[in-house]
Amino acid sequence: MKLVNIDYIPGYEITECLGIVKGTVVQSKNIGRDFMAGMKTIVGGEIVGYTEMLITARQIATKRMVDDAENLGADAILNIRYGSSSVMNGAAEVIAYGTAVKLKKI
């Protein structure tokens, strides 16, 4: 599966547009890490626990998006985008979405 955030793949022709595919996840941190993140806001700097949480959430959302595209028989996902939002303290929703297509090598 080819994943790109542009609207074409050099050397390939789009033969069929299968529609929008997406993957979403709501990810939270554990209480211990949340406490340490709160302490970090006092002294400043990167909050590694939250960074790791969002990396994991993006990976899960991407996998779910790819699974959605594979179920449609897609060869690639174009125009991939990510979005995130806080759903509660210490938890974030991450969504990955794009356009599933079938390709033919030129």
Structure explained in plain terms:
This protein is an alpha+beta fold. The protein has a single domain (2-105), classed as Translation Initiation Factor IF3, CATH 3.30.110. It is built from 2 helices and 4 strands. It has helices spanning 31-43, 48-71, and strands at residues 2-3, 12-28, 76-88, 91-105. It is elongated. The model has no long low-confidence stretch (mean pLDDT 88).
Structural class: alpha+beta
Write down the Rg: 17 Å
- How many strands in all? 4
Q: What is the CATH superfamily? A: Hypothetical protein apc22750. Chain B
What does the largest sheet look like?
A: 4 strands, mixed
Number of helices: 2
From the 3D structure, determine the CATH topology. Translation Initiation Factor IF3
Shape call: elongated
Uncertain runs with pLDDT below 50, 5 residues or more? Answer: none
Mean of all residue-level pLDDT scores: 88
CATH level 1 class label: Alpha Beta
Termini Cα gap:
17 Å
Provide a short characterization of the protein structure.
With 106 residues, the chain is α+β, with helices and mostly antiparallel strands. The chain has one domain (2-105): Hypothetical protein apc22750. Chain B (Translation Initiation Factor IF3), CATH 3.30.110.70. The chain has helices spanning 31-43, 48-71, and strands spanning 2-3, 12-28, 76-88, 91-105.
